[in-house]
């Protein structure tokens, strides 16, 4: 009798183990809602900054502003339109000076604080804001330009501790002192 119960139990276990596994249904998760909210917030910040820049440009009738493909505005303080010098390209070693001001003209980081900067175009890990890295490539040796950088091209969400808050647009005057081609060019 016991052997019959054991055989029947083994038979049921064997047949039960032969079933194919049941597929688990996916659990719906609302991922991406934070990203979508962040995108909307950043669009609003950019629209507000763009409005500020447009008002600033409209008030300033003495300078001829140029809109860059990278999303910032600039005008030349000193421009050498007759020069045959080239603009810096990937791998060039450049020296330059720059400052950072808020939109009211208050100095945040002076040219003296920064000193003369040495930079390999698009190859250096130097901690320059993306606006300055892109602005350098628009200048020839001896030229100087003032740039209006939206916060995403400047110090963005982090700002500068005890100097500049988060999401604050800035202006920067950059003067390109020299361009040296490296062996890679």
From TrEMBL:
Transmembrane segments: none annotated. Residues 91-180 form the PPIase FKBP-type domain. The keyword Calcium does not apply. Coiled coil: none annotated. InterPro entries: Motility-assoc_PPIase_GldI, PPIase_dom_sf, PPIase_FKBP_dom, WH2_dom. Residues 124-141 form the WH2 domain. Keywords: Isomerase, Rotamase. It holds the Pfam family FKBP_C. It is an enzyme of class 5 (isomerase). It catalyses: [protein]-peptidylproline (omega=180) = [protein]-peptidylproline (omega=0). GO terms for molecular function: actin binding; peptidyl-prolyl cis-trans isomerase activity. Its EC number is 5.2.1.8. Belongs to the FKBP-type PPIase family. This is Peptidyl-prolyl cis-trans isomerase. The lineage of its organism: Bacteria, Pseudomonadati, Bacteroidota, Flavobacteriia, Flavobacteriales.
